[in-house]
Design a protein that fits this description.
With 386 residues, the chain is of the alpha/beta class. It contains 15 helices and 17 strands. The strands form 4 sheets. The chain has a 9-stranded mixed β-sheet, with helices on both faces. The protein has a 3-stranded antiparallel β-sheet with strand order 12-13-14, with no helix packed on it. The protein has a 3-stranded antiparallel β-sheet with strand order 15-17-16. Strand 5, helix 3 and strand 6 form a beta-alpha-beta unit. The protein is globular, with a radius of gyration of 21 Å. The structure holds S-adenosylmethionine and iron/sulfur cluster.
Length: 386
């Protein structure tokens, strides 16, 4: 098994206020941010995982959350400096910071950039005051506009905006108006997420009324046309990029690359070429327990050969271009023939198609990605059946 590119994900689990739709490992900050202690814990975590990756350099870093922009530029700088010293960065490394427009003071993006950040992902969600309120967001549309101006002024023009659609009572025109507002801020990348009602959230307890499927289909058609006209290309189910602005870090996930996961609840995936296997890692989830825990408490679980095609396809079919046979074989160590049986019923249903030595989802398959994934789920272990 040839080693894939290596990335680093660092999770920052606190937010000013928990949003009612969000099931990420994010918690309302109720006391002073334990900034130094948390960065110390991240560094211990990283150090304890170094033997898993020998002397491989990092291709990308993603500082995600939660709200990493609650951390000061100097704390972020300390983490990045240590990661660089321990592992090394490839030339032109992409280092993304997720930011909430409600946590950005004047001049702060310039300081994050000086600390090593090369790309920012800004959680805009919507520009409609009513929706922002319903979504429990802590910022106004004007604050998002100001944050975007600050990003351009700081030389971080290759930023991403997160938008959500299928919002409570939203019409296709309203969704397009959000998109136009977003485009007016000249982002290099846009992520558009269908609002999903996740178990355990406030929205799950009292679900808002979302638009009907036909309206959501119209939203998707309109948004794709609007984005293509504005020079964006859809390269992933939720991802649209202007020329040269695809997110290298997320591409590495979708191409089944390796990533170290540090921080509360962070996941990782690391190949062990000597044993021809890949291992998933998961760190202690609850932030207080994570701060107190021994980083060696990290849970490691090998990906079985039976699960490998599903795990690979779950990522690969998210890409508009799908994946090459060659990539499947290099990343999984399995012959691409193992996919043929599982995929032929999907070909008959018009959900996936065979290109030149590659597999990809059709336009219809893209809308029903979950059906593709269910078909690829490994059979349950017969021994565990009654
Ligand atoms: C982990 S959040 C980080 C961004 C930052 N904390 C913020 O919200 O400004 C990443 C993105 O996931 C999306 N998201 C979170 N929960 C979602 C849900 N239930 N349905 C759709 N998108 C969701 C939002 O667009 C959010 O910006
Ligand atoms: S959407 Fe972002 S700001 Fe809201 S709770 Fe989730 S991580 Fe925090």
């Amino acid at each position: 098994m040839k080693l894939p590119p290596l990335a680093l994900y660092a999770h920052f689990p606190w937010c000013v206020q928990k949003c009612p739709y969000c099931d990420f490992n994010s918690h309302t900050l109720r006391e002073e941010l334990p900034e130094q202690r948390y960065v110390d814990a991240l560094l211990r975590d990283l150090e304890s995982q170094l033997p898993d990756v020998d002397s491989r350099s990092l291709n990308s870093v993603f500082l995600g959350g939660g709200t990493p922009s609650l951390f000061s530029p100097s704390a972020i700088g300390r983490l990045l400096e240590n990661a660089r010293a321990q592992l090394g960065f490839v030339e032109g490394i992409e280092i993304t910071l997720e930011a909430n427009p409600g946590t950005i003071e004047r001049g702060k993006f310039a300081e994050y950039r000086a600390a090593g950040v090369t790309r920012v992902s800004l959680g805009a969600q919507s520009f409609d005051t009513r929706q922002l309120k319903l979504l429990g967001r802590i910022h106004s549309a004007d604050e998002t506009r100001r944050a975007a101006e600050e990003l351009h002024a700081a030389g971080l023009s290759n930023f991403n905006l997160d938008l959500m659609y299928a919002l409570p009572g939203q019409t296709a025109d309203e969704a397009r108006a959000d998109l136009r507002e977003a485009l007016a801020l000249r982002p290099a990348h846009l992520s558009q997420y269908h609002l999903t009602i996740e178990p355990g959230t406030l929205f799950a307890a009292a679900p808002p009324t979302q638009p009907a499927d036909e309206i959501v289909d119209d939203m998707l058609d309109l948004s794709l046309r609007t984005l293509v006209d504005a020079g964006f290309e859809q390269y992933e189910v939720s991802g649209y990029a202007s020329a040269g602005a695809r997110c290298a870090h997320n591409l590495n996930y979708w191409e089944f690359g390796d990533y170290l996961g540090i921080g509360a609840g962070a996941h990782g995936k690391i190949s062990d070429s000597s044993r021809g296997v890949a291992v998933r890692t998961q760190q202690t989830r609850e932030p207080r327990r994570y701060l107190a825990a021994d980083p060696r408490a990290l849970v490691r679980k090998p990906i079985s050969n039976q699960d490998m095609p599903f795990e690979f396809a779950m990522n690969g079919f998210r890409l508009v271009e799908g994946f090459k046979d060659e990539l499947f074989e290099a990343r999984t160590g399995l012959p691409v023939a193992v996919l043929e049986d599982a995929l032929s019923p999907l070909v008959r249903r018009g959900l996936v198609e065979r290109g030149e030595k590659r597999w990809r989802a059709t336009a219809k398959g893209f809308r029903f990605l979950n059906e593709i994934l269910v078909e690829l789920l490994p059979d349950p272990d017969p021994a565990s059946n009654p």
